[in-house]
Amino acid sequence: MRLSDKKYALLLMVPAALFILVFMAWPLFRLIYDSFFEISKFAGGPRDFIGLANYQEALGKASFRSAAGRTVIYTVFVVTLEFTLGFLAALLFSVLGKKSSVFRTFFLYPLMIAPVVAGLLWRFLLIDNSGIVNHLLAKVGIISSPDSINWLSNPRIVLFSVAIPDIWLTTSFMTLVLFAGLQNVPAELVEAARLDGAGFPRILRSIVIPDLRPVIAVALLIRGIDAAKAFDIIQIQTGGGPQNASETMSLLVYQTMIRHGEPGLASAMGTLYLIAMMVVAALAVVFLWKPGANS
Fold first, then answer.
1. Quick check: helix, strand or coil at residue 49?
2. Following DSSP, what letter does each residue of 195-247 receive, concatenated?
3. What are phi and psi of 293, to 5 degrees?
4. Measured by CB atoms within 10 angstroms of the end CB, which terminus of the chain is less buried, N or C?
5. Under 8 Å CB-to-CB from 178, ≥6 apart: which residues?
6. What is the pTM of this model?
7. How far apart are CA 170 and CA 163, in angstroms?
8. 144-203, pLDDT tens digit by residue?
């Protein structure tokens, strides 16, 4: 029996469609469905339909609002530093050309390290008076003693301290994406602008950045979503402490589900978290990427 091209294409899509249904659509449906129930913390216990009560409770909790604020601060801090460092590194590699191949190889090594390992490594580096970072800073005279900065136990700075491994780990990704985008900037256009007397800042502002806009949008979108759902790298360093000062939304949903045994409330928090992420992603696509704007 001969299949038409259309039927053959549909047949090839079946495995991917089944995978999406089983591993993405079904868990997502259960997350939203469970958010409307009060579920017993014991297996096989009662499930009572309570409508939007879980959502009302989540939005009324100070811990939920605080975790949402910390997630925004953490994401903006991480992505801003990663983009700045990554863009500067990409420009440097682009200027160096083939001479940068060795540096690019070393620069990409952090991408191969698991977040849990990176979090554990930086925990040992930053841990209060026994961390290597504080000992080095004290040795060169930047701080008076190794216990001058409590990176992971000071509630005022811990959110930024736990972000350091994330920045160290994934700045390479930002560099890689932006460097690839820079290769597509028309060299003749840059050369013509240079011959007309345009300086580097003007070329960057008027040619490079506008040409890179779709690449920048994709890089910021991917890293923004990834940073906003950071979990393992924070959990391994502080577990959300001290005093919940490093508890972001991912950790709050986890604590609500596992430690406090409230699956319905955790599902409502997760659903609100998902909606917020989808809204942010849609706004980024519309206002930053602007698909079709060039045409």
1. strand
2. HTT--HHHHIIIIIHHHHHHHHHHHHHHHHHHHHT--HHHHTTTTT-STTTT-
3. -65, -35
4. N
5. 86, 87, 90, 212, 215, 216, 219
6. 0.87
7. 11
8. 888 888 889 899 999 999 999 999 999 998 998 999 988 888 888 888 888 888 888 888
